[in-house]
Amino acid sequence: MTTHKVEQLVIATLGFFWCFLMWFSTAAFSPGIAAHYHLSIKSLGLLASSAIWMAPIGRIAAGWASDRFGAPRTFALLLAGCGLMSIASAFTVDYRLLFAERIFVAIAGVSFVVGIQHVAQWFDPHEIGTAEGLYAGTGNAGAGMGALVLPRLFGTHYQSAFLWMGVVALFIAALYLVRGRAAKTTGQRDLVRGRSGMRDTAFVWSRYIAIALMLAYAMSFGLEISLNAWLPGYFTRGFHDAIQSLGFTGVVGLQIAAGTFAAVESFTASLFRPFSGFMSDLFQRKGWTPLPFIARNLPYAPRLHWLGTSLILITLATSALAIAGLSGSLHLSVAVLIIIGITISCGTGGTFALVPLLFPDRPGTAAGFIGGLSTAAGIVYPLVFAGGSNIHIGYLHVAMFLFVPFVIFYFWAARCERHPEEHGLLTRVFAADEA
Amino acid sequence: MHTAGSSTEPVAHQPWYKYGVAILFAEMAIAIAVSGYALWLTFHGAGGAPRMH
Hints:
heterodimer; A: 435 residues; Growth Hormone, Chain: A; 0% strand; B: mainly alpha; rod-shaped
């Protein structure tokens, strides 16, 4: 069977888009589910956080499975399993069972690393940025599309939405299995299968700069996915009166309005990702190194400074969301969400502009660690958001008690003027192994 | 994984590439449109919200 790399890109993007649509479809209907089962704010926070429970370990395992069995088989299995469970959840009437089934469906979120691996197997280095940008940006938009479109299409009938999404997932799984090819050549396929040993994994996981990038991704992508899950419920609870005064009445109206406002963050964070790549290139081209402490003499030092700048902007924007919420202004909160989305895209794009440069020999292992473990942040943030005395103050808690320490660690880890990837835990052990 | 800009040497791109870049710009335009729509909703309310169901 003949194929083309663009066909592989389209298949991967379609699968990823649909997986993200399924991943955050629970959040899109959270107001309806909360009303149906009379959930408290704490239960809503738990439901929001549960979407991400499977991601940290699941992404690391999925990355390994992609290398071992090939992306098409791994992706098809993910789509089919999540699709079948989504169909099952459409017929469930007990909340605890529904909660468990939706956690299983949330495994769809691990698909990101499978597609990243798939696309990387087909595109050359000079075009990989655009190819991965198309894949990641378009696929991530599935989350925003869910928040924007699903409540309009299905109202409070989340059971119908879960059923249809499951059925379509089964069709895409079949398409992936029939048309998907793991790599451009058999040799490349076999090479990847033989790599990524335990020693390489331990080396990457113990590097300070890798940990710093993982925390940077937790601040950016972790915040993005936590907001995807949290915001529909937040707007429904935090701006109930303001949304009703706009004319949105009943659960359906609230769900539509809250989903639309929530989609702003997801769309800007996903679709502005290439803009961050452009800014990273601009910093590099101009040689800008404006921040103190961070290295200035490394070949990619400007990119380190761009990411540092992005992390500071994310911290400020997240704090601003708390202030906007406390002011009671819906307009201001939505406007701040747009800014948060753009700063998040700067963080995600800025992080993965550095990964291949810092770990050129182990890009897959580094991407699995940074892109996988960081999603644990998406579990923690909604719990902090829901745990405050006031529904708006949680953003400030996250910014002050999590983001500020993360930024300080990043500045410390990025200070080395020579080979920052050599600094880390167990350095003597690895040096002895090399000898 | 964005790596463009790491090298200053000009590269001859394949035909698909220009369409890929065009789609990236179109996606940014969609993000701006959705943001504008959401802000418009906050000012105009349900009167501006099309319902498909």
